[in-house]
Amino acid sequence: MTNQILVVGSVAFDSITTPFGKADNTLGGSATYFSLASSLFAPTSIVGVVGNDFRDFDIYRKHRIDISGMEKQKGETFYWAGRYHYDLNTRDTLKLKLGVFKNFQPKLSELHKQSKFVFLANIQPHLQLQVLKQIKRPKLVGLDTATEWINQTKPALLKVLKLVDVVVINDGEARELSKENNLIKASRVILKMMGGQKNDILIIKQGEHGLLLFHHSLSLRVHPKQSNKPRRLPRPSDAFRARNDTGIFNLPGYPLENVIDPTGAGDSFAGGLMGYLAKTNDLSPANLKKACAEASTVASFSVENFGTKRLQSIRLSDVNQRLAEYKKLINF
Ligand code: AMP
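That is the input. Now the predicted structure with adenosine monophosphate docked in place:
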């Protein structure tokens, strides 16, 4: 199918502590959040592994997520425990147990190899690479990662980065990966790590503050080098064009009063983004911006309850309704 999405990532049990509450051993994992979000827009298949302690298959089936590529192995399901700081934008990983992911060797079915939209969600980079090597002719490949992999397996991560079209990471990870504090400078370093192809796309998420979208072909003009040649004074329309031509696009977060648990917001964003792009099959810059707005809206639901609870309860009509409010908020 032309808009089939394939995601490889963690399927997990999470123990989450926020300043306002706690949830133990709740269903999570990057592939879980991603697929619940992307399946709102396009058919999605998961490649991953769970232990024999895993029982939640029906949740995926209910959302028509294809789990034929989710292997069941003897051992424990991936486990992650994290604690959020008071601002809910930063967190510490308290425990990460790979469990059955330690020896996982993904082997794709013939059908999965034909997927056109592929997302390498947060998991060990060598697994992302193994999946990518088996894909036949993808139209768009996206990637997410985490501080753990940037610190522990950077050479493998740098290898995968070269092979993808879209990178979706958060601001902290962008700083960590690029060793640049400023996000515009960080974007240049990361786009270079991606190989500097003209159509590469980088999205840096900034939690409740929204996101920055960078498009490589134009981003070199973010801050044009000052030359000594006399220049004509810019007209107002030039100023507008200069901003747009930079390839930077900025969206605020949807303002929410009740944020319960930010876990999975990034994966839900990525799912919404890839889902919308697969559904529309349009990679133009204008549609990329729309996809970012759709994705931010999906992610805003995800944080309204612990774990995947809220994401499991929404339909596309809920997303559309909130998107209309979001549009009004940012329109001037
Ligand atoms: P996010 O908040 O978008 O980073 O997603 C959090 C989800 O990703 C949780 O459900 C975790 O189980 C999972 N997760 C956290 N750290 C990792 C990691 N290093 N590798 C893979 N999955 C992870």
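Residues 98 and 207 are 26 Å apart (CA to CA).
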